[in-house]
Amino acid sequence: MKKFLLMLLALIIVGLLAAKVDLNTATLAELKQLPITAEQAKDIYEYREFIKMFSNIFELREIPSIDQKTLLALRPLVVVSLFQETDDVAIRREEIRDLLERLDSNEGASEGMADVWEDYLMTPQNVNRMHFDDLMSLPNVSGVDAVAVLRRVAQGDTIADMRDLRNSPGLSHYGYTNLRSYVYYREPPVKNRLMWDAQLEYKTRYFEEGQYDMLREDFTRDYQTGTVPQRQDLSYWGYFGLDKIDPDIMMKLRARYGTNFKLGIMNNTGKGEAGLMSQNASEIINDSKWFAGYENTDMPGLDNSRLKVYLGNYRATYGEGLVMENTDYYSARKTGFGFSKRILGITPDLSRTQEFALKGGALEYTHPLFGFSAFVSQDDKDAIVYINKDGSPVKRDEYGNDVFTDTDPTSNNYNQQYYVAGDGSRVYNYDNGTAVSADKNKVFSYVIPTIRWDNDELMEAEDWFNKELLSAGPYYNPYINLATRTDVLREKLWGTHLQINPIIGTKLGFTTYTALYDNAHIVVPEYDEMLKTLLRTSGDIDKLRKAMNSEISSMYSTQTDAYSRDYRRVIGFDGQTVIGNTSIQGEYAELSVTGDDMKLGDDPKAYLVSANTQYDNLYFITLFRHMDLDFDNPYSNSFGEHERFDGTMFDGNVYSLTNSSIADLYFNGNQAQPERGVYFETRYKFNNYFTVGRSYIDLFERMADHRRTVRFQSELEFRPLYQVSLRLRYKNQINRFEDMADRGTSKTNEYTMAVRTFLSNRDFLELEYRYNTVYAPPYLSITNTASTGNNNGTAAQTLMIGDYIAANYTHNFSKSLKLQGSFLYWFGHGISHWDWEDMEIDFMGEKGSKAWIAITSRISQNLYMNIKFKNKTYQDKEIRIRRYNDPYDSSLAGRPIYLDRVERSENTIRFSLDYRF
Amino acid sequence: MLSNKSILVLTLLIVASALSAWSITDSYFGNRPGSMDARIYAMGSAGTFNKVGVFGIADNPANLTLMEKQYGLSVNSFINRNEDNRARPFWSQFDYYIDDAVYSSNINAYNNFAGSGFVAHRFGAFGLGVGLYHKPIMNFDADYAEDVRNNYNTNDDIYARQIALNSIVGEGSVYKSGLSASMAYKIGDYTDLNLGVDYGMVDGDVSNEKSIRWTDFARNAVSPHHLPDMTQKYDYSISGNQMKLGAAMQLNSRLGVAATYSMKSTLDKEGNYYYKRDAYRNTLVDSTNVNFKEDYILPSEIRFGISYTPRNVMRTVFNMDIEYVKQSEIHERYDDVVNFYAGVEHHVVNRIPFRLGFQAVNNQFIIEEQAYDLNNNLITVYHVNKVLNPMITAGSSIQLAKKVVLDLGFGYTWREYDAVDMFGDAYYNDKVYTGASNNSANIWTNPQYVNLVTRGWDNPDKVRENNISINAGISFTW
């Protein structure tokens, strides 16, 4: 009987509950059955649909139309069931949300890599089955950490969960915190299913100072004999009308099924380039990047072996990036540790890298004990080519002879080139219709153009400039002889990487690639000839006969007096071992030139060895690198203080070149400059109050001119309270030029103090002040009146002083709406300042002020919108360093070349939409 | 009957006048305000799907029956502050160019008013709605002044002498008075289809005066009656009508989609053109006074929009529109353009909304120049300048009473482009008027350094404009 009564009671309760309306599941029609108005029912429904699910009935009072009386009336009629998210993707997305947002904000520094890491976050790897390189490819995970994990697994242990992982002997605290979200333990958090990401970015920007000057440089006739015309159409800038806002638009779409099948496509239209609206389908496909891939982490056959197969665009990265790490983007001091990680092996590539993108097929098979990968690529590359007066590429025969080898100084066609045909007649280079017995383009170098103009448009522009140049006096090079052409260098590339991992934490690898140039000879003249080829006037040749320009003449040629071929081949070895808490790694690479491919030491070489020792609160990185001057491997992306061609005439003497756009080799360079040196870095957290932040010293020598440099930076953070942090940073750099007569020694000091207060809700306010001094021998053009004959140095050592003050603020209205803003004022006086904005770096010269505001709105769980607006108002250079000491320029006599101090005001905007998973 | 010379001059001046409207450069459209719904304006004017704002009926007639309320009235004011800076970059002077230093800067503010109202009723699954609105679609207000000065006194660090004053004054707006109707079919609680049609009468009077006035200093420097003033005046009206079709569909509680199609409209542009250049030395006064009538085309537009309402602790609406404007209907040299609009609304605290938006709208200006071909025949050369206007917007609203809301939308836009000098330098060459020799100009202190020729596209002005706009609307809905 008692049982019966209990059951009856239970049934009554269930019945009563069943009769009640569940606020979290009721339809609108059911809500309308309640004793409330239709409008109130709708408000309840929309609160649940558009704001949040109910966790208790008292939340009804958050709806304006529900007053206390209505709540009391509803109370006996409604219930709130427990709502729990069941979609595993939604749950996972919330777990890793902070990391995803952090990766997005670092996208600028790790172009394209964030996609890979985001995928790993969403669909992590099984920590018990990961290989050494898998662990090494994750952000902030060191070799020592990787070995700690692998040793546990090798001993037959299974890492069961996050806490268990933390207890792995030898795994550092930082290693654990960085690793834990990228791996799973027993069951993957997300089932295999279709997931997709889409991104739209719309950005207006201004060109950087060097690129701006390069594009504005005009092709003016010799001012000794002609009238200087006031015409803007004699520069690329004016000809192509770049005085207007023209956005970069990037669209990206990725889809994948679990971790097995992946697809992606990305199209990027840069400032000044033809957009989607003016391209046909084949052009759009050609300019887009795409991939299709298959990955299997559990291949049949050998236990725990993995396969990756990719078609389309992919990245290949091995060792220390000396042989192969294909990207268009150079980043300074890329140690391969911490935040400058490499993702090893083959990965899909939807980065904006265009020139050194690999397009073809790639296969990678890895096992804990060995690995193998092979990749092939065929892509047409942009290049600087030698051109004739009519803009067509100079053609060469298969033996390396220019077809147009002679110049006719006597004919009416002054300086016209020709070659002698088989019947003895002259074939002039304007005779395009005449059969030409050569089909090789004479190429100077690969190039990443600032703007990828169409070849026909470029030829029309250069033809226009040539009319001006040819109409006047005797320039050494009276017409444009080198120019950028898009998709002109046909490159067929194949490469392989073999690796053995004999014991945990130790590996040895061999990497090689060969790039075959079917349709081109790459020709870089010897030093003197190079100057004559690149400089417009003979007067500049002696002026620019400087040691650092040997970096240009040392570029790789396929055709020299010593050899003739149609490829570039790089071969290298890499290795890594972990001993105790120290990981040692290195790579040796050779560019095949005159030596035997398989013999070490007889060709231009580069090598790098580094060691990373870590303790809980302390690490050391010691790195030694050496790169021969003539080790010219465009697919390398190794450690270096500066990019290639820094300080050469591509950097400071753009106006002297036969074609200013050649300077793109420097402005968009992706390789490190050849240098030799030792780098040491550390960070130590004493306790909760004191931390020595990332501090380093780098002693190196630039190979081109043997300039020696010491660069030192250290940072101390003092945090007396959790909410307040005081940071002091000091940077010192001393450059000593070998040629004292030229520049002597320069010393730079930079002092920074920043106070940051951590407010509630992750808000913060920061004030920063920076003070710089530069002692340097005078640039005569700065210290003297820049006029004819007045180029005697009077100052022994000049001092430049600059400073900078900034306020940064971040406010989180809620977890879905964040506002970041910054205001800063700087005074440079020849010193360049830099500033890290929300996700990009900005350089500022002279003096000015800048304010930016960025709003990140998380519209829904999947959709993010970001709008950033920036105004930068600054004074441009007071003096343009130009032909100040040209004795022939009578028009400048007695008139100093001081520019009026001009103000520039730049507005930029970035709008992006991201849809995730 | 006009002489050939007069026709040529008239053509040139009409072409020149193409550079003189609001924002001086865009004579065709003047200033086109975005959505008149202040809420939508703050969301980047992305309002093809809009079920809240009364003025949404003007963006898409199908919004009428989409509205959450049955009745609505709204009055709006639109204020625009335009800053126009013109620089004269000197090229090929090696180091001597002024670069971005501005030689003429004008700041002006203009305003317009608008009103709208609607009634929408449901009859079971069906609904019907009717609305009326009156709103500006183009504003031609302009006030541009530019000094012409010589370099006299510049070494003494005081202002140089003023030679002449150039000015352009424009007035007038073109309004659209529209009647819209819509019908709805309700499929479910959050699923319905709305179809609407809009018929609007377009009407507006516009005047534009461009003048060059010599100063007393210049007049006194040369013989009497040697420097001719110039006046060019353009009075016209634009009238006609325009049709728009719209559809809006609520797919579910989260997503709405909408589209509009504005048909190409050929309006009448009718008015008077007056030109006068005073007599000088042996040259008679040159004047023209003609009436004209021509077609004025409003191009067809197709616009698609989505509205997404996610679940978010701050109630959120995200709107995005894409618009295709067939500008090639105006002129064959124009490209058709695609414009983009996006915005979000978050209710941050206490139901106070924070709205944020972005839009990228393309304009095109055509400049016609007379030139000679290889056979020495007079030909017309067209130069089309496609100019992008990125804009950021923000706004909020205040509940004034239970059914009365004040919406505020702010916008900031800027654009940069090349433009031909609006007042060619050759006009200020006093040697032409006095018949003096090459080196004896009287009003230029160092004539050997002053090359008074009209520079055209060899060295155009660099123009930087920015606009700060406020759209304020009070709406009453019930």
What's a concise summary of this model?
Chain A is α+β, with helices and mostly antiparallel strands and 917 residues long. Chain A is 18% helix and 37% strand.
Structural account:
Chain A is of the alpha+beta class. Chain A folds into four domains: 64 residues, Photosystem II 12 kDa extrinsic protein (DNA polymerase, domain 1), CATH 1.10.150; 332 residues, no CATH class; 132 residues, no CATH class; 159 residues, no CATH class. In chain A, 18% of the residues lie in helices and 37% in strands. Chain A has a 24-stranded antiparallel beta barrel. The radius of gyration of chain A is 32 Å and the shape is globular. Chain A starts with a helix and ends with a strand. Chain B is mainly beta. Chain B has a single domain, classed as Outer membrane protein transport protein (OMPP1/FadL/TodX) (Porin). Chain B contains five helices and 18 strands. Chain B has a 14-stranded antiparallel β-barrel. The radius of gyration of chain B is 26 Å and the shape is elongated. The relative contact order of chain B is 0.18. At the A-B interface, helix 3, strand 35, strand 36 and strand 37 of A face strand 14, strand 15, strand 16, strand 17 and strand 18 of B.
Helix content of chain A: 10-25%
Rounded radius of gyration of chain A (Å): 32 Å
Which runs of chain B of at least 5 residues are low in confidence (pLDDT < 50)? 1-22, 91-99
Major sheet: arrangement of strands of chain B: 1-2-3-6-7-8-9-12-13-14-15-16-17-18
As for the number of domains of chain B, it is 1
According to DSSP, the number of beta strands of chain A is: 37
Distance between the termini of chain A: 56 Å
The fraction of residues in strands of chain B falls at over 45%
The end-to-end distance of chain B, rounded to whole angstroms, is: 61 Å
Helix percentage of chain B: under 10%
What is the second-level CATH architecture of chain B? Beta Barrel
Helical element count of chain A?
Answer: 21
Sheet with the most strands of chain B?
Answer: 14 strands, antiparallel, barrel
Oligomeric organization of the protein chains: heterodimer
Share of residues in strands of chain A = 35-45%
